[in-house]
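Q: Okay, next protein. This is ABC transporter permease from Ramlibacter lithotrophicus. I've checked the sequence twice, so it should be correct. Can you predict the 3D structure?
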Amino acid sequence: MDQYALLVAATLNAGTVLAIAALGLLINEKAGVVNLGAEGIMLCAAIAGFAAVVHTGSDWIGFAAGMGAGALLAAIFGLLAIWLNTNQYATGLALSLFGAGFSAFVGIGYVQEKLPERMQFAVPWLQDIPLAGPALFRQHPMVYFTIALVLWLVWFLYRSRTGLVLRSVGESPESAHALGYPVRRIRLAAVVAGGALCGLAGAYISVIYTPLWVQGMVAGKGWIALALTTFATWRPGRVLLGAYLFGGVTMLQFHFQATGTEVPSQFLTMLPYLATIVVLALISRNPAWIRVNMPASLGKPFYPGS
């Protein structure tokens, strides 16, 4: 039973990384912007957060540094793609390549660094519940923050006036512009907010999930987060469930190793990416369903003068 409780706990921890990043990308895409630079943003945020904790000893300053790095890179992407109307896909790919190289360069001096002793978190009284306690109530506060963020996003996108305006910009920027809304500024704000969340996910990886710095340590999680938005049909609740699903697939390799199951390690390592391909292939079989849920102006530039 303890092994299954640990598997659930590890699944929530791994899913949190994907959920935070995917929710940031969801905000971008609800405004009609596709940011393929998530991987690069997360890598730069990971080294920024790790370096901040090394020098200050504070995890929360590390999270703030990661969010700041993510927001800055996203703002640069937004200025290029929204104001200068560069191709969103090409600009995002360039950002990913830049982030991979820049983080590797900056992180050379931090490869051997170690973080201070990690604090153990637990919910009083609930942590002692058999099975459920170790599985659900001994998590880092960021796990619970992510669940709260999903609930807030559901309210924000579907119940608030600001969320309605954001969605209208993603559906029909021409109509929103005709009504007097500053489409480009709204899109830029969404991109910066999404970048900050991707940055938070990157910092969480290097500070909490695997508290160290290694070149390329994000290991494709930014791309999986991008796939998650499509998998979830742009719904925050489904993003969270999908993130836990992929987190569980990621943790299965360690569970199999712990139980002595004879499965080639190479196959276990590729499980999360294989699951991503299978899910996207299944979803792609019904393009009409995707079109109904996808923001109508996703990836399309907006020209105010036209």
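A: Here is a summary of the prediction. The chain has 13 helices and no strands. The mean pLDDT is 89.
Q: Noted. On to the next one.
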